[in-house]
Amino acid sequence: MPSDSLSDLLHLVEATSVISTGLKASGDWAIQVERHSGMKFNAIIEGNCALRVDGGQTFALVDGDRFLLTQGLPFVILSKTGLQPRAAREVFAGAQNHFARFDGGLGKPFVCIGGRMDAASDMNFLTSSLPPVVVLKAERPEASRVRWLLDRLMAELRGQRPGASVMSNQIMHMVMVEMIRACEETSEGISSWLAALSDPRIGRALRMVHAEPGRAWRLDDLASACNLSRSQFPSRFVALVGIPPFDYVLKWRMHVARRALKIPGSKVANVAADLGYQSEAAFGAAFKRVHGVSPRRSARPDAAVEIQGDEPTPHEAKRARTHTRV
Question: Which of 26, 48, 165, 225 fits a 20 to 30 Å CA distance from 289?
Fold first, then answer.
């Protein structure tokens, strides 16, 4: 199977998705959701509502619409403007059979279902290139794929057959991937890492870097493989990915390193060598530049990581800055 950069990234950050508690409401209602981790998804199954995202954006949503919040922004979902929202933690505390209820009196019923994607590693590698809010309207062609998955999800929730919980979470993971795909299709004019995946030239460069993160990449190697000149390649790369090629190489390499360091028994020296570094000091300086912490502190507390010279001396750090490779 050909290399798939989005799959590479989701595996690298160990992304997982779970179904979250849905909502059944009637009459007048409003719910405030505080800042949250990971990416949050909701789909309107019945009725309509307004979505007001922190920062001023407001969207009118109807049956069949879906939205994805990628940056953890607080938001309010409500039946009409002017209502004082209740905290989500209060509304969802009494949930039963996957749904919370909000009785706001007589009125048209409202149903939504949601989910969340989190990662064992830093999701910023992915989310930084996505718009903070993605609204997928029911009439858009790509919405049909999500609709089919949600129908299957609702069937699992209603049926409660053996394995329903596992099936529901797996379906939600597919829903989240479809919504990530939709970010490129619904966000016209936004340059992002996702746009590069389908680009026949820059996409090839991404696949090469992912396949060999420890290779001493040269600009000529990547430009030639993409059939671009030495001057064309970096400008096209930045336009699509948002950062220069070797910043991306370093960022990808250090995410690979962090995952490798979580393996029990890992040695910093071995991880550094596997990624092409000739010294632990150079590797440690590069790692800290990307992650803000040393390799040792990034490793799991329970992982038996063997360290030699975890924190470089000032002299080693200076040498590392001079000789750090990408």
Answer: 225
Report the Cα 101 to chain-centroid distance in Å.
Answer: 29
Structural tokens at position 100: 């919370």
Three-state secondary structure call for residue 39: strand
Q: What is the pLDDT along the chain (326 residues), one digit of tens a residue?
A: 345 677 877 887 788 899 888 999 999 999 999 988 889 999 999 999 999 998 778 999 999 999 999 888 999 999 988 889 999 999 998 788 889 999 988 888 999 999 999 887 667 777 777 788 889 999 988 888 899 999 999 898 888 788 888 999 999 999 999 988 887 655 444 446 677 777 888 888 988 888 899 999 999 999 999 999 999 999 999 888 878 999 989 988 988 888 888 888 888 899 999 999 988 889 999 988 888 888 877 765 543 333 333 334 444 344 433 333 44
CA angle 72, 129, 168 (to 5 degrees): 55
Query: What are the structure tokens assigned to 41, written together?
Result: 């998804």
| CA distance linking residue 326 with residue 317, whole number of Å | 16
Work out whether strand 48-53 and strand 58-62 pair parallel, antiparallel, or are unpaired.
antiparallel
Whether the Cβ atoms of residue 6 and residue 83 lie closer than 8 Å to each other: no
* Cβ within 8 Å of residue 83, ≥6 positions away: 28, 29, 30
